[in-house]
From TrEMBL:
It comes from Agromyces aurantiacus. Keywords: Oxidoreductase. The lineage of its organism: Bacteria, Bacillati, Actinomycetota, Actinomycetes, Micrococcales. It holds the Pfam family Bac_luciferase. InterPro entries: Bact_Lucif_Oxidored, Luciferase-like_dom, Luciferase-like_sf. PANTHER family: BLL6902 PROTEIN, LUCIFERASE-LIKE MONOOXYGENASE. The keyword tRNA processing does not apply. Its EC number is 1.-.-.-. This is LLM class flavin-dependent oxidoreductase.
């Protein structure tokens, strides 16, 4: 395990005990948590993107602000739903945020998960052409996005522009941020989409659920997905080494407050069910004393196969407590998994 970061769903509500009671609270505390995570030694700060919900939605202002307040930590998404995105405008936003952060963005993109409304992308002005699906649209948008952040020049220049064109011939999206193309991840929910991501030269981001393709335990199916991704990557002949992340809910019990929040809670085993018209397997959560956690996590085949672990955090419990959650894992658990 080379890198450990956090993944925040960015919830807010006025429920009792919530320290994020508004969108403003979530955004400002997300920046503060990225700063705190960097201070305790974490490697990454990642944020979920959901529409029509009391959760984080537009990632680039947040990533840019966090980039301006930090200096080392990776900043990413898990994931941006490409059914909702204009890939040209997104390319401009992504490059600008990456430049502000000094080249630290790690953008997870995908078809996305079920939203709070039916076919919400239609309200954003997007619809699948006849004969295709919105999953096709998401992949097509991603393909365009990858090309334009990689410097594609395709737009016919105005022969009499307001300002001189920087070079002759077609123009491309500006600004460009060198290296961003290698820091795009695909959130794969199946073995087939993991293979597709490898073929496109994207890193693999695997979450706490995937399509149930064999009935085996979640971590075993996820490990096999990672193996399929790496095999497809090698077959494609890409020159660089790909990255792979997995997400887990893991809490080290080191004080009475931890015990009050997490002892007796969470899922002790995998769950199987139907989501978005396919059968899925959901990974278990972990909450135990550090020595017990180390033994449990050593048996997780997907964690062993990945290079990056993203810890889902209860963001509504506030910055201080979540910084404690991260520091407890980094101090008492991560070294036992080979981190640093």
């Amino acid at each position: 395990m080379k890198r450990i970061g956090f993944l925040s769903f960015g919830h807010w509500s006025d429920s009792p005990g919530s320290q994020t009671r508004s969108a403003s609270d979530v955004l400002l505390q997300s920046i503060d948590l990225a700063v705190a995570a960097e201070e305790v030694g974490a490697d990454g700060a990642y944020f979920r993107v959901h529409h029509y919900a009391n959760q984080l939605a537009s990632p680039f202002p947040l990533l840019a602000a966090a980039g301006a307040k930090t200096s080392r930590i990776e900043l990413g998404t898990g994931v941006i739903d490409m059914r909702y995105e204009n890939p040209m405008y997104m390319a401009e936003d992504a490059a600008a945020a990456d430049l502000i952060a000094g080249g630290r963005l790690q953008l997870g993109v995908s078809r996305g998960s079920p939203e709070s409304v039916i076919e919400g992308y239609r309200y954003f002005g997007y619809e699948a052409p006849e004969g295709s699906t919105m999953a096709d649209v998401a992949r097509d948008n991603t393909t365009v996005f990858l090309k334009v952040i990689d410097g594609a020049r395709f737009a016919e220049p105005n022969p009499r522009p307001m300002f001189p064109n920087p070079h002759p011939g077609p123009l491309g999206i500006q600004p460009q941020s060198p290296g961003l193309r290698d820091r795009i991840w695909w959130g794969a929910g199946s073995d087939a989409t993991a293979v597709w991501a490898a073929e496109q030269g994207m890193n693999l981001m695997s979450s706490t659920l995937k399509e149930d393709e064999s009935g085996e335990p979640f971590h075993v199916q996820q490990r096999k997905q990672i193996e399929a991704f790496r095999a497809a990557w090698a077959e494609a002949g890409h020159e660089r080494e790909p990255r792979v992340s997995v997400s887990r809910s893991i809490f080290a019990i080191v004080n009475d407050l931890d015990r009050r929040y997490f002892v007796g809670g969470g899922d002790r085993s995998d769950q199987f069910g139907v989501i978005d018209d396919f059968r899925a397997v959901f990974g278990r959560s972990y909450a135990a004393e550090p020595d017990v956690l180390i033994e449990q996590l050593r048996e997780d085949e997907a964690i062993a196969a990945a290079d990056t672990l993203l810890l889902t955090v209860p963001n509504q419990l506030g910055v201080d407590y979540n910084a404690h959650v991260l520091e407890s894992i980094l101090t008492h658990v991560a070294p036992g998994l080979g981190w640093r």
